[in-house]
Design a protein that fits this description.
The chain is of the alpha+beta class and 298 residues long. Helix content is 20%, strand content 27%. A hairpin with a 2-residue loop joins strand 11 and strand 12.
Length: 298
């Protein structure tokens, strides 16, 4: 039986969809709000819009949370929260913003590999949500989200920066089950952060701009999982309690130490273990729950 979480969405039908599938699609912003957010990003990132050398390859998407300028990251957070949170709060039950991200795919770039988002709460007890808002019409051609239904039910292990490595080389029969979710500008995909997802490169002549707002239940401690060492048998991971300011000075998995403190250490299986569980579940009938490490261990 799937874990029962505190209620996330005020609408019971949407809550049922979120529980069953792992995401819902909702209208969120009007066209004036979409235009205002697009304009803010274009003006404020002008002339300083690059990912630092070595962060990703040249075909990756641009994430404001790892922009070179911490002041830009903070300003982006504040602006997204001001515009989007009042709309999101009308749908969510007791959530607070932790990360606010402009995600841009310039023309002919922008593959984001199959991954799960970071786990930012104790997923044995809570779920965090990403409110992913399209600022242009998003489809298969410019790299909308493609999601794997029900994958949030069992893959609730602690995850950090290594989450982007876990599903490299998935077999085609699993990848083929990802659902391409096309949305209009102003619509939002609200997803459980444990859902496995992917987005294709933007093969059009125009930027594909979206927002990711990571929301955590007010009743949950916000967490960040940071790998400190690894070997063939697994990883040693520090568990930090963090606030949103931790991510305003964030680079290569290190945040602002004034706003994060280590509360425990975990020993986790190798990165590849998540993919092995996923493949096993999608070759079997149904999806099974898996136990996750005790966050008090270490």
């Amino acid at each position: 039986m799937a874990t029962v979480f505190p209620r996330s969405l005020l609408d019971p039908d949407l809550e049922m969809q979120l529980d069953e599938r792992g995401w819902v699609v909702v209208p969120l912003l009007d066209q004036e709000e979409v235009a205002e957010l697009r304009g803010w990003y274009l003006v404020n990132s002008e002339g300083n819009r690059h990912i630092p050398d070595g962060a990703y390859n040249d075909e990756y998407a641009e994430f404001s949370v790892i922009h070179t300028d911490p002041a830009f990251r903070e300003a982006a957070f504040r602006h997204i929260v001001r515009v989007v949170c009042p709309k999101a709060d009308a749908l969510l039950q007791g959530f607070e913003p932790l990360v606010a991200n402009f995600v841009n795919k310039p023309a002919h770039t922008g593959v984001v590999p199959t991954h799960q988002n970071w786990s930012v709460v104790d997923e044995r007890r809570f779920r965090s949500l990403s409110v992913w808002v399209a600022l242009v019409d998003c489809n298969r051609h410019n790299g909308t989200l493609e999601l794997l239904a029900r994958s949030h039910r069992n893959l609730r292990q602690p995850r950090g920066m290594w989450a982007y490595e876990a599903f490299a080389g998935l077999p085609g029969d699993v990848v083929d089950q990802l659902e391409c979710v096309e949305v209009k500008a102003g619509e939002a995909i609200i997803l459980d952060d444990a859902v496995v997802h992917y987005s294709r490169p933007n093969v059009t002549e125009h930027d594909r701009l979206a927002i990711q707002l990571i929301m955590v239940p007010a009743a949950a401690e916000a967490l960040f999982f940071q790998c400190v060492s690894s070997d063939e048998q697994g990883m040693d991971v520090d568990v930090l309690e963090v606030s949103e300011r931790f991510f305003w000075d964030f680079w290569h998995g290190d945040g602002d130490p004034r706003y994060g403190r280590v509360v425990s250490r975990l020993r986790l299986p190798p990165v590849s273990a998540a993919a092995a569980l996923l493949v096993g579940d999608y070759q079997d009938v149904g999806v099974r729950d898996r136990s996750v490490p005790n966050l008090d261990d270490g």
